[in-house]
Structure formats: C-alpha cells, structure tokens
C-alpha cells in the first residue's frame, strides 16, 4: 500500500496507476479489456484528438487505475499518438508499467523497453501472440531473456485469455529493466550537460529526458514548460553535439539502441527448420512448375500491357499478337529460371527464404510487385468494387422507391459457363422496405422522407447505403489483401523497395502503407497517416491521397472507360496523374516547414501467412473503419442535403460552367458530374462519361475531352467522407487550405492538358 494517494479527474483517490505500453497492433486493447472488465471509460487526452481508455483494475484489494496508452514505436514524440503515450508516462510518480510485446517482433518491442529503462520505470513484460511464434518456427529462450532484462516475462495469448492471471499477478513484482546503453563520447557528454540544466522534480530519470531532447523532441520542451533560457541552453548543447556527427542525432541514438537490442537477442531467438521429408517434393514443384508458370504469366501480362499501350499502331489481336505474347512469356520464364536454378536450386534454402530474397532483388522484385498489384486489383477492384458492390448496392439495399427484383441463389462451375440456380430470393431491398414504412406516415415528396430516403442526399439511401454497400466491400477485401502482404512479411520489403521514391516526395518508405491503402479507399487511408512520424509527412501524405491517389472503384471505372477508347490515352492519363503526384509532393517537401524522419524498419522473415491472423486483423480493422468513417459519411450526406435544399450547389454549378466550357473545352452538362465527385468519384466518372456520350449524339466520344475530364475528376476534390476525415486528422484550417489548393490546381492541369493534346493533335 502506498502512502501517497493520486487524485484523478473524478476526485476518487487511487493507490497507483498501471500504464499499458506497447507498439501498435500488439494486443494491448484486448489485454486492457481483460484487466479492467467492463468498467471502462474512453475520452480524448487533454489537448489532443487521441482517445485514451481508462478503467479500474479488477481483482486487486487496492484502488488501481489502468490506462491504455496509444500504440507507439518510440517514446520520442514524432506523432500525436507517441506524444500522448510519452506524456502519460511522465505523469506522477506512483505508476507501474505493463509492456506488451508482439513475440514475433521482439526487436521492435525491446526498443521501447530500452527507453522505459532509461526513464527508470518499473516494468513487467507480456510476450503476447505466443502461439504465432510457435507456428512460425521461432524459438525464444524466455528464461534467458528474463534473466538478461531482470524483469518478469509472461507468455500470453490475449485472444485465448492464456497467461492473463499470471500477467496480472506480475504487477506486484515490477522492476526497472537492466539495460544500459553507451551512445558515444560526444553524445554522453551532451547528456550530462543537459542533465545539469534539468529540475529535480521530474517523474522520470534526467538521463531519459536529456536523450529525448537531444533527439529533437521539441514537444517535450512545451510539455515540461522549461524557461526560455534553459531551452536556449539545451539547443546550444544539441547543436554542438550535432556538429560532430554526419547523421541526425535521433538516427544515431536509434541505431545505438537497435544494435544493443540485436546483441541482446543473440542466443535468445532462433528458428526451427520446419521442412519435413516432403520438402524435396515441394521444392521441385516450386522450381519446376509454380515459378515457371508465374514467370510465364508475368511475361505475358507485360507484353499485353505493351501491346495495349501501342494498340493504335500494332494490331493487338490475331496470330502476330499471340506470338508476341508467347515470346514475352518465354523470355520471362528463361530469365527467372536461369536465376533461380543457378543461384538457388542447389543451395538447399527454404522456399520462403528464396521468396524473401526475390522480393528484395533490385530487378526481380519489380515483376513480383506487378503480380501483387494485379492480384490486389482483381480481388479489390474487380471482385470487391465490381461484383460485390453491384450486388449489395442494387439487390440488398436497392432504391427506396423501386423494387430491386430479388436475386438468384446460384453456383458457378469453375472454368465453364455453366451455372446452377438453386432458388430465387424474393427480397426487394432494405431501402425499399424502409421507404414503404416511411410512406405509411408521409408522402415521398415530404422533406423528412427526402432527408432519410431521398435518392440524391438521403441519410439512409445515400449515407448509410454508400458507406456499407459500396465502401465496406472495397475496404474489407483490401484489408484481406493487405493482411496477406503484412503477415507474409512482404509489406516491410515493399516499404524498403519504394523508400527512395518516397524520399523525392518528402516522405519515406512508411508512406507505402497509406498510399497502398488509398488504392482501396482514400478515407480509410487518411486515417492511417497517423503512423508517419512527423507532422510534415502526415500533411504531405494526406494531400497526395486527396489529390492523386484514386480509390479502386474510381480506378476500375476509369481504366475500363479509357481502355475501351485507346491504350495511348490510358497511358497519358497515368503519366499525367503520376507526374502531378511527383510535382506536388516535391514542392510540398520544399515549402512546408519541418523535417522528415529517419527510415528504420524491422525486416521480418518472409513466411507463409496464417489465415486466422488475417481474418482477425481484417475484423478489427473493418470494425475500426466503420467506427471512424461511417459517422463522417452520414454527416457529410446531411450537409450535402442542406446545401441542395438551400440551392447552394446550383449556384456553384452555374459559377463553374464557364471554366468547364471555355477553359477545359467540355460540355456544360459535365459540370454536374464534377459536383457529384463530392459524394462519390466513381459515380462522377460515369456521369461525365454519359454526358459526353449524349453530347456526341451517338457518334464516337472525343477521346481528348474524355481524358481531360477524367484527369480533372481524379485530381479534383476528395469525396465528402474523406474531406471530413481530413478535418478530423489534420484540423479544419489545414483541410480547407488543401481544398483551396486542389480545386484550382485540378482545373489548371486539365486546361493545360487540353491545349497540349490540341497542339500534339493526338
């Protein structure tokens, strides 16, 4: 029992506080629920938008508060989540730490442990997801690690409630980890000089604060409320130390910690060889069948793409095309086979290890990326955004005023055109039945009916239907695809491979996550920009997502429309969008104040994905998306309804017509399509295409008009749901400034493109 009581917001005195600390996605929230039961409150941390969960500790005779800190990869503040996690640890003296570590990623977790040790905080460690380490052949000597660190380690499986009681009891025996890192003479001297400037009433060790300040954690200066004279002295010391190194101090400090952790794990972590007798057979199947087949497919698709791009000059059908496609596949097979047989076949390496090497190869990794992107497009773009969305939107939700007609419950026989219909389901759509219910009390032209069930901006007909029937299938299938890349270890390799490209944009390889997610849904991708380390990086990535990353639904419609017109115009479209992304990203990196972050990423072994992991992560990510995005989509629909009823949208359309007609060279009828882009950009594409068709009067659509319109709608404003997420994540001022830049920029690029196409006579 502690003598000093801590006062909390509800004026109830507690004996001490337990802080749950860990990296993102390590199972903290699940463990928090198991430790606190149902007595949980969720609120924003003061001065932030970051939610923090608090609850009372179950099973203790003392009054103990448990705080679930936001997931953080470092306690040096680069993001709002990390700042909140750090500030919670800096609060009051009477606290104990339970650190949750993903057992599969010990190094990443122990980097946090080194910082907790420097702070002098008493810690107990839970090695969560222990079952997954066993599945992947990892062998962790937990006893040796526990002895090395000098703290209690508990093996846990949160989803199965395994080890929870042991972890709960370990709170009584928390200790400061036995970790001491030497950062080099110059840095150590700087640490000592800063320590002398710090007050004595800090809740953690001065050394930890000094290291954070040397790492350019400027938010800490504001949190601790230092005098200006002290801050100036700290900056002078930091600059003097920095002048002795060619790399940023933060990078050097992180590298020293990483090297220390690597040395600590030697002899603690090993891997079992899980190959059995069937390994010889599987290797032969892999080398002699699977890889030749995959490489032939790669060559075939590359040749298809080349022929498609020059379809105006070479007939992409017939015998010549067949010979070219087969030749492309043959060359690809020969290239891959030569490399694999000469370098890998006789080495006896595991197949997963070979694939891991290929994904990092400077030449061979790109064709593999092509296959991955093709697979994602097929799963997310064609099946998710195509068939699933069409079915759920038209048949499950339908219209409030028209029957959907029901649907057939059927099964297809693979590789044939045969289908078997079991029965017809006479379901007319959720919106239709709700519409009938509303019409028992009011007419269809009643404003209340229009508010909820209206086809243009009804909360149910548009807001809920679009978010559930359209966005959810796309996001769900993308989460499955993303889970496959993540669980296999491919995603970190992709981040490393694209790091140089993102450097041009003022970002680093971590930005691959929101950018790839943006191909599924920009709204959800904007939420994930939280993982980026600095405010500057988060602003740039948010801007590029809103500007130049089309979601899968929009991309699928655009590719289909332009592909049917000309491969040349499709190529021009992608070149324009990609070039503008580079241009805006590069200029933003130079204009925006602030610094980028160092790119450090743990490289896990390439492995076979585990289905249960993928499904579980997909479930939680989808749940999180629905919680974050759907309310904003509904709110956006409501605002759109108000603007429509007030006639504001009509005035906007009238004001934009001169620009659309005279500068872009498009029919004025396309103006409504651009406005529709506020709601859903793929619908806007279809609307513009139909307007051009009607204007052509049954003749061929002008391809130059089409490509100008599609470039503008891609660069044009993000959908309303995404815009509200931008406000939530970056603040209203930043979001509106982005909007004020994007709209005129999109029209400017479209107008310039129009005149270039006219000049080139394409």
Tell me about this structure:
61% of the residues lie in helices and 8% in strands. It is of the alpha/beta class and 762 residues long. Among the domains are: 6-173, P-loop containing nucleotide triphosphate hydrolases (Rossmann fold), CATH 3.40.50.300; 185-271, Helix Hairpins (Orthogonal Bundle), CATH 1.10.287; 279-358, no CATH class; 638-760. α3 links the parallel β7 (95-102) and β8. The longest helix is centred in the last third of the chain and has 35 residues, at 611-645.
CATH superfamily of the domain at 6-173: P-loop containing nucleotide triphosphate hydrolases
Large-scale geometry: globular
Unreliably modeled segments: 1-11, 274-278
CATH topology of the domain at 6-173: Rossmann fold
How many beta strands in the DSSP annotation?
13
The fraction of residues in strands falls at 5-15%
What is the average of the pLDDT values? 79
CATH architecture of the domain at 6-173: 3-Layer(aba) Sandwich
The N- and C-terminal alpha carbons lie at a distance of: 82 Å
Contiguous helical run count: 32
Helical residues, percent: 55-70%
Radius of gyration: 29 Å
CATH class of the domain at 6-173: Alpha Beta
Strand order of the largest sheet: 4-5-6-3-7-8-10
Q: By helix and strand content, what is the structural category?
A: alpha/beta
- Major beta sheet, specifics? 7 strands, mixed
In short:
61% of the residues lie in helices and 8% in strands.
What labels would you give this structure?
disordered N terminus; single chain; Helix Hairpins; Rossmann fold; 8% strand; 762 residues; alpha/beta; 7-stranded mixed β-sheet
């Amino acid at each position: 029992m502690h003598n000093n009581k801590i006062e909390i917001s509800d004026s109830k005195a507690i004996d001490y506080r337990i802080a749950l600390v860990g990296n993102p996605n390590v199972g903290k929230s699940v463990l928090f629920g198991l430790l606190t039961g149902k007595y949980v409150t969720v609120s924003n941390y003061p001065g932030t938008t970051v939610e923090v969960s608090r609850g009372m500790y179950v099973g203790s005779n003392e009054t103990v508060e448990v705080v679930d800190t936001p997931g953080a990869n470092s306690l040096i503040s680069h993001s709002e989540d990390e700042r909140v996690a750090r500030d919670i640890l800096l609060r009051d003296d009477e606290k104990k730490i339970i650190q949750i570590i993903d057992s599969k990623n010990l190094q990443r977790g122990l980097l946090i442990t080194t910082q907790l040790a420097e702070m002098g905080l008493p810690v107990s460690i839970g090695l969560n997801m222990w079952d997954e380490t066993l599945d992947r052949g990892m062998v962790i000597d937990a006893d040796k690690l526990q002895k090395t660190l000098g703290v209690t380690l508990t093996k846990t499986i949160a989803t199965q409630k395994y080890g929870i009681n042991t972890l709960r009891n370990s709170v009584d025996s928390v200790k400061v980890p036995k970790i001491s890192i030497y950062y080099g003479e110059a840095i150590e001297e700087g640490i000592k000089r800063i320590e002398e400037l710090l007050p004595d009433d800090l809740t953690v060790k001065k050394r930890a604060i000094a290291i954070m300040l040397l790492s350019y954690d400027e938010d800490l200066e504001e949190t601790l409320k230092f005098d200006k004279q002290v801050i100036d002295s700290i900056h002078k010391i930091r600059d003097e130390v920095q002048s002795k190194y060619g790399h940023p101090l933060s990078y050097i400090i992180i590298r020293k910690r990483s090297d220390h952790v690597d040395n600590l794990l030697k002899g603690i972590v090993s891997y079992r060889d899980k190959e059995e007798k069937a390994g010889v057979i599987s290797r032969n199947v892999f080398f002699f069948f699977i890889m030749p087949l995959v490489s032939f497919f790669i060559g075939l698709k590359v040749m298809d793409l080349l022929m498609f791009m020059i379809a105006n000059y070479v007939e992409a059908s017939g015998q010549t095309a067949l010979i070219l496609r087969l030749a492309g596949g043959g060359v690809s097979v020969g290239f891959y086979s030569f490399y694999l047989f000469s370098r890998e076949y006789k080495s006896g390496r595991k197949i997963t290890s070979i694939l891991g090497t290929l994904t990092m190869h400077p030449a061979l990794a790109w064709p593999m990326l092509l296959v991955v992107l093709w697979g994602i497009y097929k799963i997310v773009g064609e099946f998710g955004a195509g068939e699933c969305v069409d079915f759920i939107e038209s048949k499950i939700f339908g219209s409030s005023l028209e029957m959907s007609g029901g649907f057939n419950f059927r099964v297809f026989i693979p590789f044939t055109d045969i289908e078997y219909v079991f029965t017809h389901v006479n379901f007319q759509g959720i919106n239709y039945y709700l519409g009938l219910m509303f019409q028992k009390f009011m007419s269809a032209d009643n404003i209340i009916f229009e508010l909820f069930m209206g086809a243009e901006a009804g909360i149910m007909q548009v807001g809920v239907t679009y978010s559930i029937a359209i966005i959810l299938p796309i996001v769900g299938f993308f989460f499955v695809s993303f889970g496959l890349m993540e669980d296999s270890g491919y995603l970190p390799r992709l981040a490393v491979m694209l790091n140089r490209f993102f450097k041009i944009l003022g970002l680093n390889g971590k930005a691959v996550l929101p950018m790839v997610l943006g191909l599924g849904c920009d709204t959800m991708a904007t939420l994930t920009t939280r993982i980026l380390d600095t405010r500057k990086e988060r602003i740039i990535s948010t801007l590029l997502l809103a500007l130049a990353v089309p979601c899968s639904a929009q991309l699928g419609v655009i590719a289909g429309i332009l592909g049917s017109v000309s491969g040349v115009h499709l190529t021009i479209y992608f070149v324009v969008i990609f070039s503008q992304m580079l241009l805006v990203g590069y200029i933003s990196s130079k204009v925006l104040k602030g610094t980028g972050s160092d790119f450090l990423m743990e490289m896990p072994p390439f492995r076979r994905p585990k289905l249960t992991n993928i499904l579980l992560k997909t479930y939680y990510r989808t749940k999180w998306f629905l919680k974050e995005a759907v309310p904003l989509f509904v709110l956006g629909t409501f605002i759109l309804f108000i603007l429509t009823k007030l006639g504001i949208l009509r005035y906007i359309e009238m004001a934009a017509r001169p620009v659309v007609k005279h500068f872009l060279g498009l029919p004025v009828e396309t103006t409504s399509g651009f406005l529709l882009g506020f709601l859903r950009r793929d619908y806007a594409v279809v609307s513009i295409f139909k307007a051009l068709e009607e204007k052509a009067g049954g003749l061929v659509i002008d391809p130059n008009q089409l490509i100008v319109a599609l470039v503008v709608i891609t660069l044009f404003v993000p959908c309303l749901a995404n815009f509200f997420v931008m406000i939530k994540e970056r603040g209203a001022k930043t979001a509106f400034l982005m909007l004020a830049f994007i709209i005129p920029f999109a029209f400017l690029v479209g107008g310039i493109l129009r005149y270039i196409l006219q000049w080139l006579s394409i």
